[in-house]
């Protein structure tokens, strides 16, 4: 399967891929999509709480990102129409997910292409100015970290909010067993802050509601978990299970799309010296578990 008829969405000119007529049409059929889409999901959705969405300003929904169906359950939680920034191109062009996203309204971005990334911001600004709301995953990639509730965020969402006056609504999804839990948080004016401060506030808000779901529905004792094997091994198996739900998972892109702060070193970089140590009696203490 290859969705050739959707190739036009790769065009970097906003007017070639978005129109007011298209937005109006998609708003009309969106309730049908939201009703039918969960039938293809892997989990049962439980909306824990949701705040009222302002009607007098454009809205950018900012969901957490960590598994295949989080977009689907985000759309149902939102209960309104919004164009999706879609960056998983193999999945878009080779599966029915792409057709569903196109019917809903999608803006494509090739995360490995600098010009496409830049053009996606212009297309999103254009879409908002034509009357559309947006869904942007500011992490830019699945969060596969064992430690971070939310990865560092890309600033594209800030640029779009600044140019359009859109408010931002954080959304969190979290899976436990066969249930996906979700929270739709209160809208706030991201663009009233300077970029660095605003992005940190957004990340904090996303982490807070994500943690709320984790704390409420995924409480385990470390000792109980360790009875099933090392925590790292269990986590790796869990991540592989989530990836297996995606038929066209692009490892080359997904393994390199996480935001990297040039002024910070990664965990791997910090401890890379451990791989080059000549172990002796004098330095063996470095291998102690702390």
UniProtKB/TrEMBL annotation:
Keywords: Acyltransferase, Transferase. SMART domains: PlsC (SM00563). GO terms for biological process: phosphatidic acid biosynthetic process. It comes from the Bacteria. This is 1-acyl-sn-glycerol-3-phosphate acyltransferase. Residues 59-176 form the Phospholipid/glycerol acyltransferase domain. One of its GO terms (molecular function) is 1-acylglycerol-3-phosphate O-acyltransferase activity.
